Amino acid sequence: MSPFYYVLSMLFLFGTPLIIFAMKYVSSAYQARMRAQADDAYREMAQRCAQTQSEGAASLSAIQADIAQIAARLTAVEEILKAVE
Question: Could you give the C-alpha distances from 38 to 23, 52, 54, 56, in angstroms and in order?
Fold first, then answer.
């Protein structure tokens, strides 16, 4: 057997597991990076949801205050109309 083919066969023999482990490492690193990006996107979405929810609660309380004022005015108008009758 010529030395060239011997070295080539040894490279294939020992290189294959190294290539497999390298591919596994690259795959794990890529998955971790994608998972981190997904977590960041989820965190940002949760912050936006919390902010939107607080804005909605503020709007709801403002609307309730307006309705309370309208009810008070309506009661005053009803009393005036009852007094006129």
Answer: 22, 21, 24, 26
Q: 20-38 burial string, b = 16+ CB within 10 Å, else e? A: eeeeeeeeeeeeeeeeeee
Residues 78, 70: Cα–Cα separation, whole Å: 12
Residue 41: other Cβ atoms inside 10 A? 10
d(CA 46, CA 41): 9
pTM above 0.70, yes or no: no
What is d(CA 83, CA 81) in angstroms, rounded to the nearest whole number?
5
- Pull the structure tokens for residue 8: 């080539």
If you search the block for the tokens 């010529």, which residue do you land on? 2
pLDDT tens by residue, 38-69: 999 999 999 999 999 999 999 999 999 999 99
